[in-house]
User: What shape does this take?
Amino acid sequence: MKGMPVGNGLTAQQGGYALKSAIATLPAGKRALYRFAITGPGGRPVTRFALTQTMRLHFYTIRSDLTGFQHLHPVMARDGTWTADLAALRPGHWRMYTQFTPDTGPGRGQDFVLSRPVTVPGTASTTALPAASSSTTVDGYVLTLHGDLRAGLASPLTVTVRRNGEPVTDLRPYLDTYAHLTAFHQGDQAFAHFHPRNKVTGDHGGPTLEFMTDLPTSGNWRLFLQFQTADVLHTAAVTLYVG
Ligand SMILES: [Cu+2]
Assistant: This one.
């Protein structure tokens, strides 16, 4: 498993690599296509990427109030142009994140997260961030979090999954791991992504997922936990305070 990527995901360029897009606005309330390219130190689009969690590129978006999370896998054309097929966005300020590992050039083998802002025109209302909590429920699954997270320090976080009071032990690997934890910092939308250290041994993950987190700044983070049972992908959300 990869460790933390370079930086906090809030820049469009790093180490000679850049996220380029002509799109600064997208329409509200309907599917929207976000086209972009990753350019390398020579300024040309990168077309060779290493597979990370079975994909050449992971794409995430979040609204400035940390609602509207999407995790997608865009399609790349031969010339290095990517298209992310986004579900309906609410009006407001969004950030588009790309996570990738070049397979050529000086950044070869390095994990990058680059992002750009996008405005969705319309009347924007802000949703207050839910209070920090040690549990959350999605689709009947109750997730309980244990951990005392400290900014800038490697901090263990344990997530236990139960359903009807019983431990869940039929998590399926989704993109090669039993869970994907994507986190965004309240205020600046800093990004982090983690996978549990649990060994993947078929369709019987759970009930406990052991993460080693390393969140760079204190404050509230909105966590999105994605896991699969049968053929259904679940996405749980919870606010976590990092001291
Ligand atoms: Cu992941």
The radius of gyration is 18 Å. The pocket of copper (II) ion is lined by residues 53, 175, 180, 193, 195 (CB under 6 Å). The longest strand covers residues 219-229. The CA atoms of residues 72 and 129 lie 23 Å apart.
